[in-house]
Design a protein that fits this description.
Length: 179
């Protein structure tokens, strides 16, 4: 009887710790779709850092998981922060009037390809807003031609952000950390 009681207590403690870690510290996600290729591939598993992300200021180019709707979470890259005026022209991102390099897109673009990768747009054309509103971000997938992102769904409220993607851990040959 004593062994049974010790086992039950151990199982209870492990269960409670697992719930706390998953709800408040880290969780894992399986990526579905090709919108973040080649950065993240369909079927890869990622670890998401939830520690205080809702209290932190997000950084441009963070890879975030957010609740897109009641049934779906998306992973995308933050392009625009609150107060930013941004637009694309001739395949170049402009933030507050200055061009911004997106080095992470080089592999996706295929090097010296002359094909337009990100179609021209302005925030005003897409959202009727001149700047990214307070407490919101503007996100894009790295696979710009095959991504449902802020160009279609609008700004992402910060309270819908689950956390920042830190690394892929499955399959093992694809283990890598994100900046």
């Amino acid at each position: 009887m004593r062994v049974l009681w010790q086992t039950a207590k151990t199982i209870a403690v492990v269960t409670i710790l697992s719930i706390v870690v998953r709800e408040f510290l880290f969780t894992n996600y399986i990526v579905y779709g090709q919108s973040m290729m080649p950065t993240i591939h369909d079927g890869e598993r990622i670890i998401v850092d939830k520690i205080g992300y809702e209290l932190m200021e997000p950084d441009r180019f963070d890879l975030i998981i957010f609740h897109a709707d009641e049934d779906s979470d998306y992973i995308k890259r933050i392009i625009g922060l609150p107060g930013d005026e941004l637009y694309y022209e001739d395949d170049t991102l402009y933030v507050n009037g200055a061009p911004v390099e997106e080095d992470f897109l080089e592999e996706t673009r295929g090097g010296a390809s002359t094909e337009v990768f990100t179609d021209d747009f302005t925030l005003e054309n897409l959202t009727n807003e001149h700047t990214v509103p307070e407490d919101h971000v503007f996100v894009l997938g790295d696979n710009r031609k095959n991504s449902i992102d802020s160009r279609q769904i609008g700004f992402v409220p910060m309270e819908e952000i689950v956390g920042r993607a830190n690394m892929t851990f499955w399959p093992p040959q694809n283990i890598r950390f994100f900046k």
